[in-house]
Design goal:
Helices cover 76% and strands 2% of the residues. It is mostly helical. The strands form 2 sheets. Strands 1-2 form a two-stranded parallel sheet. Strands 3-4 form a two-stranded antiparallel ribbon.
Amino acid sequence: MSDSMKTQLVSSIHLQEVELQEKPADDKQDSNNSNNADKTFTVEDAVEKIGFGRFHILLFVIMGSSNIVEAMEIMLLAVVSPEIRCEWRLEDWQVALVSTMVFLGFMVCGVLGGYIADRYGRWKVVFGGFVWSAYFSLLTSFAPSYGWFIFLRAMVGCGVAGVSQGFVLKTEFIPAKHRATLLPLATIFWMLGSMLIIILGMLVVPTLGWRWMIRISVTPSIILIFLFKFIPESARYNVSAGKTEAAMKTLHWIAKMNRASLPPGRLVEPVTSERGSWRILLSPSFRRTSVLLWYSWFVASFIYYGSVLSSSELLEKNLLCVIDADKEHQVKHRHEDGLCYCIPFGYSDYQTLLISCLGEVALVPANIALLNVFGRKMTLTVLQLLAAFFFMILNICSTMFGFTVLLFLLRSLVSMNFNVVYIYTAEVYPTVARSLGMGFCTSFSRIGGMIAPFIAQVLMSQSVILALCPFAVACVLCALGNFLMPIETKGRALLQNS
């Protein structure tokens, strides 16, 4: 064999070996591409894969700020009550009716807002709630009479019901392991809203009056209307409505912001036509949970607003059994048409309310620890039993400092309870009925809010101990109900379908 033939034979053998080595690699790459094309993932997979990042910080700040708006509109009632009582010479039941009308508007629009959010999207309902509540709150400052005032405040309550759906929108973007930490921190924004309205009352009411305080308080709502464009529609809602392309666009944007990647494959989830159906809430899977949860929401609102309005009433009318009460609270003015307490809040009263607001975040670390260690059900049970205890000892004679400490702790407990019941509700229902479930729950809670003023502001004038007992009894019964709930949501993925 010649040298040239040997060279050609060696080259041929070498070339064949190279082809044999490269061919499996090419086949492997083709196989990988084929496997990726066949792979699918859900929104839950995508949310967990993306993890926590810059998008969630933006979400936390903007959606958390919606709690500032809600808190300001609700706490405004405690600050304005002494002023409108004197301006229109109102009796106790008329002052209580103001709060009741706000919660009536919230109750009526709560279910409606939840249905619309499940059918047509969360974003539209929350944005509409911002605009609606800001508009009617501004109109409230021009109310010419008591009748107009309570009607316009009912309209504000209707708008706040839409704003409260922001909790669902926020929850659906947060990974499971971060929910027990991030969602309780939203209490900080509620506290800021409560403190802001009290500070406005302290600075504005004595000089410009309560009407200008309301006008200035609308400012956060207007700012949030413009900031809300940075929050996308829920990807979970989009896939349930068949808008897979819109959901993928949202998930890609979040992944880009968080410098993360989506799972390989295609986003695939079944389209659900039965969105926003009340039948899901009363199906065998959720019937017992729904009934117990409705009562839990009723009590959460009943004791929260009971504690807020009770503190305002005790301070305004000097019904406290304290050793060092201010002398100015001993003065009562009489009018020809009946008894009227025309004693506006003094600096010390605003100071006490501010300190009690701080109580809403003081125990947030303890709340996070309870949620992560004991879960949602047991945390609710413990918080409600403790709240019952503090409602009863609030009647014990003490100094003003002692009363402030008790009020501080009570506000901490009822605020934590409200926050946990929000978290549990957002986690326990499937995406197709999550907003409606939240809507029903918030509507039941407003029934508690409607009753609370008549206990805290009317019955309180007759007997402090009789006014505090219903709150304590409701807490004990609710603790038992929460202990019997069949579902624990700690660490569980959010359900897409029932």
